[in-house]
Design brief:
Oligomer: single chain
Shape: flat
Distance between the termini: 79 Å
Largest sheet: 12 strands, mixed
Number of strands: 18
Order of helices and strands: EEEEEEHEEEEEHHEEHEEHEEEH
């Protein structure tokens, strides 16, 4: 465990009334919940930097921080909170002031390079939640009553994005179909002919060059990859240079998956895509024994924060999640089933079957 340090925080007081301002998705600026004042944010013109991957890995960068290595002192009430959950932005649980950690201390820890701002506000996320839960006939009724307001949180989820150029060489056995006429006698002693297919095999080879840009790898360990992939894609063209004002009023998670581990995932995906491309190049009617050798070069990366509305809740002994893409509004979720509703449905089906049987027997 590292030595705890007190990190400075940023807050954004309203110039009109002094209350804290938060990022407002509809206006893409800061808004005051107290007096309604708004502060527009300048449109970014800066291009996001991408960093040399090999140099960063050699330097030992991109290691996730140890949990509990940092404390945040609230600028409103001076309470101190340990960032043991890997958060970079939060609201003080004692006074409610939203704040953003100003630095990311620790050897080899990288700050975010870019942010994809929320465009779906809380009202839009709540509406999506209500629409989704209303379609879950077997969801417990108490979940439908309490769900969205208690559990839904706007969270910036960390992602690594990777760029690379791929050069692949492949070899395979290509097969070309040809047909011969075969004479045969059936069980009745009659003679027939039929076409029989054969394959003529021959060696083939080729190459493929691929360019991959912004291959995303989730650096959070709090959300399963399958949940996040279900609400993709995110429009990376809308990324903005990191600005702590974009995080005000939202949670922001620190990366838990290191740069090297993320690259292993991205590289495996790139190699799989290259194999698919090479597979499509093999000539002939069929092929087998495809062997692909891929080298990756020109590798770059950046760390970005992507917007997700998250409802993670315990029901019974299990954790369930509901996600909304904070940029596009795409939804995905899972929910528990009420055993009473399931039993009621089964009973109704049995009663209906019994009625049908009585009706059939009475005819």
């Amino acid at each position: 465990m590292g030595t705890e340090a007190v990190a400075s925080v940023l807050t954004f007081p309203c110039s009109a009334c002094g209350a804290q301002m938060v990022f407002d998705p509809p206006s893409q600026g800061l808004a005051c919940g107290q007096c309604g004042a708004r502060t527009p944010l300048p449109k970014p013109r800066e291009i996001l930097d991408e960093h040399d991957l090999e140099a960063a890995l050699t330097a030992g960068e991109g290691k996730p921080a140890e949990p509990g290595v940092r404390r945040v002192r609230c600028g409103g009430c001076s309470a101190e909170m340990v960032l043991s959950a890997g958060l970079e932005a939060l609201s003080c649980p004692f006074c409610g002031i939203p704040q953003v950690a100003e630095d990311v201390p620790g050897d080899g820890i990288l700050p975010p390079e870019g942010v994809l701002p929320f465009r779906v506000d809380r009202a839009g996320a709540v509406a999506a939640f209500r629409q989704w839960i209303s379609k879950r006939w077997f969801a417990p009724s108490d979940l439908k009553r309490r769900g969205e307001t208690e559990m839904l949180k706007g969270t910036y989820v960390p992602f690594w994005t990777y760029d690379a150029q791929a050069q692949s060489e492949w070899t395979a056995l290509s097969g070309t179909y040809y047909y011969t006429t075969e004479t045969y006698t059936d069980s009745q002693g009659r003679t027939h002919t039929r076409q029989v297919r054969h394959t003529r095999w021959w060696p083939s080879s080729g190459s493929h060059a691929g360019v991959y840009d912004d291959v995303p790898v989730c650096a959070s360990k709090g959300l399963p990859a399958e949940h996040l992939s279900a609400i993709e894609p995110f429009d990376f063209a809308a990324l903005q240079p990191y600005d702590p004002r974009l995080l005000s009023g939202y949670q922001a998670e620190a990366y838990a998956l290191g740069l090297r581990e993320g690259w292993k995932d991205a590289a495996a995906r790139m190699r799989a895509w290259e194999e698919q491309e090479c597979d499509a190049q093999v000539p002939g009617d069929t092929h087998m024994n495809l062997s692909v050798s891929t080298s990756l070069s020109g590798m770059y990366f950046k760390l970005v924060l992507l917007p997700v509305w998250v409802a993670a809740y315990r029901y019974g002994e299990k954790t369930y999640r509901f996600l909304v893409n904070g940029q596009t509004g795409e939804v995905r979720g899972d929910s528990p089933w009420s055993p009473w509703k399931v039993a009621g449905a089964v009973l109704a089906i049995l009663v209906l079957l019994g009625i049908l049987c009585l009706w059939a027997n009475s005819r």
